[in-house]
Amino acid sequence: MVGSEEYFPILWGGDSWTVYQNCSGAAIALSSNTSCSVSHVCVTGGCNTSLSGGAVRVTCGCLTTNDSVFECNCSCQCGGGIYACGSGTCVTVGNSCIYCNCASCHGGGVFADSQACVTISNSHIDGNCATGCGGAATICNNATGIFCCDTIANNHATGYAGGIMAHCNGVVYIIGTTICGNRGQYGGGLFAEGSSCTIICDSNFFGNCATTCGGAIYASGGCLIFCGTVCIYGNCGNCPGIHLNSSNACAIVYGTVY
Questions:
Q1: How would you label 37-66 residue by residue, b for 16+ Cβ within 10 Å and e otherwise?
Q2: Model's pTM, two decimal places?
Q3: CB atoms inside a 10 Å sphere around CB 206
């Protein structure tokens, strides 16, 4: 899919289009200010053996996708499902599923880097894995990740953050979202570090597990901001709820956390 700033290609799969991607690159790759809209498409079997982004790789471009599925893709680097990088890069996902993707490094489902913005709403991020950190998603290096009315479940990381990792000035919004059944070494549901900022509003953390510490949330740095009603229950690990492990980490509560 190629284009320029003025060209906006649209791929619509009707009731069911499946893109089987078995070569050494992402099925959907956008760069150089390309814009693309994708609907009703299933991207499966992608294996990027040379770069980040198993199913989707967006570097300096914009992708909008609705009612689509990204499943069983992998990357030898970051972003087994979706990889977004660069200033001006935006990826918007609605009413879709991102599941069973795998990254050899970070961000099993989604990886956002270097000022990119990824917005995922009314979607499921399920069963993804990362050999490094962020089984569901990693947001880092001044990137922004917005998760609104999503279910983030059953993801796994060998390292930190079975669910979402906020790292190195990354900004994460978790709004009306359920984070459950995720597993990682530290921060089963969420791991925050560096100068990251994570805003959590009207969301639930339950059934997450940390093999070491911070069953629901682990923060070694950055700022956690809670607003509305945030429910944290039934998580497991040493300090199964919220663990702040550094004087560089802070938590600000504007609503109710229980």
A1: bbbbbbbbbbbbeebbbbbbbbbbbbbbbb
A2: 0.92
A3: 16
